């Protein structure tokens, strides 16, 4: 079997899935990059009730080949922030809100790492395209559930004590993964 390439893109918009983001500007997650309000370049939707929305998610690409009877896979999984799909209302936002939005982006990175780890441990078959798609969809569901839980528990950043607890939890998850 020759080399097959599959590129699938992604995005989880807080809780809204978008299907046409690939051509949009994107910022890859980095431990040294922190969001600023100027990064939120999208227009506030007319009927929006939220103070801000971070459009972030996971993208992956892979190629596969059969080698000595085994499926060999080269892949890349990354978390991205999408500025033109992210927006905020300055009158309703402050530094706590910005931190809350940064943590949404950080959560996307946590799940990108989770997918990367699972890709590395999975023994794929000739049905690799479908197997990766199923893995990706499962990770997106887990990511969405985690993002929703974060918003609910922090009351969208308004519960400062819960926000601080989540910040510590997310920081620990990012650090734990680095030290593994």
UniProtKB/TrEMBL annotation:
Any one GO molecular-function label of the UniProt entry: peptidase activity
Keywords associated with the record: Hydrolase, Protease
GO terms for biological process, alphabetical: proteolysis
A Pfam family hit: DUF922
Identification of the protein by name: DUF922 domain-containing Zn-dependent protease
